[in-house]
Amino acid sequence: MADTALIDTLSARLGPGGVLTGVDTDAYLQDWRGLYHGRAAAVLRPASTAALAQAVALCAAARVPLVPQGGNTSLVGGATPDSSGRAMLVSLARLNRIHAPDPVDLTLTVQAGVPLKAAQDAAAEAGCLLPLSIASEGSATIGGVLATNAGGNNTLRYGNVRDLVLGLEVVLPDGQIWNGLRCLRKDNTGYCLRQLFVGAEGTLGIITAAVIKLVPQPTHREVALAGLPNLQAVRALLAAFQRADAPALLAFEYMSAEALTLVLRHIPNTALPITTPSAHYALIELATTGPAPPLRATLENTLATALETGLIDDATLAETHAQRLALWRLREEQSEAQKRAGASIKNDVSVPVAAVPEFLDEATRAVTALVPGIRVAPFGHVGDGNIHFNLVQPATMSGPAFLALADTLMHAVNEVVRAHGGSFAAEHGIGRLKSTLMPTWRGGAELDLMRRIKAALDPDGIMNPGVLLP
Ligand SMILES: Cc1cc2nc3c(=O)[nH]c(=O)nc-3n(C[C@H](O)[C@H](O)[C@H](O)COP(=O)(O)OP(=O)(O)OC[C@H]3O[C@@H](n4cnc5c(N)ncnc54)[C@H](O)[C@@H]3O)c2cc1C
Fold first, then answer.
1. What is the pTM of this model?
2. How far is the CA of 278 from the centre of ligand 1 (A)?
3. How far is residue 276's CA from residue 282's CA, in Å, rounded to a whole number?
4. How remote is the CA of residue 343 from the centroid of ligand 1, in Å?
5. Engineering a disulfide at 221: which of 134, 257, 265, 287 sits with its beta carbon 3.0 to 4.6 angstroms away?
6. Per residue in 367-407, pLDDT tens?
């Protein structure tokens, strides 16, 4: 079927607002960072799983590629089609139904296009917490976070989203609907199919709904920001909090002085709440449920001991909800500040937690040797060994000239990651950005197995081609 005939048929099936073409598609065809620009025959906006399934079957019959898109916050170009203009971009935005949370089963059933924040709010209204927290949660969708196996601030305590999903509904590449929307904690009935689609970045099917695990809403929260003299102290402070009360530790986030300075410079209404600047910062959040847990005392005592032993330079504790939000804002605005600071090269990597200080030292030396004056602005989820080792253009170099060095710089960083037994793709996924690196990192039996799974589910290769698998 010619593309125009296919688009006409799809328009008839998906109804008013179901198919966009021409300039109406522009917003869908560029990624959040403005690095990837694609083209698409049309943008499909199905309003139901059944309508999506029909559209997928029609596209499959015509061998037309499909690129699923949720909130379009991918940092690896995963939701942007290629430049051929053949693909149909599938926006999940209209699959936006939230079912009532179940506070007894502690589950929430949501459609894929629901923004993560809306799902969190629905859980909170029922006295529960959806324990996935990422800076893009206002836009990122349930389908997107599942397709990328998002991590974020609370991985330390609750794991990645893979650990939070009990059930899934998926439209398969041939248009069949797999309804695995179960809310069971125990269900040993063969291969765990839902986990195949989590982290598959839209290459095996389109997630349309999910059952997510909740936990009771914490009744007590304490947040502090500490300034630290060196990276070994960051690691030691994490260990001190784990010794003090590991189950209460909700987040332990790292910011370098350079990263924090970018936020203070580029994000309005932010301020450093500590008098003397430090070389490194840790944002710590403790949270528990229960009558009167000694959280405040744990935080104060651990920081006081750290101050006495020289582990920290200084610290500030949030006294109010507004102060808690202000401290978190310094961390949450990191990506936005770096976007405003100029051209940046992102390395979302992980190493064993114990190796974080050595990794940061060695990677900094490696990139500085290559580009003198480079601004090294790492931050991240240090509690689970995930560092966003981000590099900002030197003041003396143009953005395009800096970006031309991206492969060289990423290679240099990845060599250090490899030496420490880490991963070149910690939580943002592979997308288009890193797919060519798969053979060197996951070659042999591992990549072969992935290709066989892909061929079994999507023999014509129509699902998000060019993403994840090279
Ligand atoms: C400021 C900022 C902060 C961020 N912080 C974090 C963080 O802390 N932790 C983290 O893990 N990530 C983070 N990210 C990255 C990003 O937000 C996550 O990868 C998120 O999970 C993507 O969700 P999305 O709905 O925007 O997906 P999109 O960007 O639309 O898509 C991402 C990938 O998933 C696929 N996809 C989307 N929806 C579906 C679906 N329904 N079915 C199948 N495939 C689908 C797409 O094809 C694409 O490959 C951040 C991004 C930004 C901009």
1. 0.96
2. 32
3. 15
4. 21
5. 287
6. 999 999 999 999 999 999 999 999 999 989 999 999 999 99
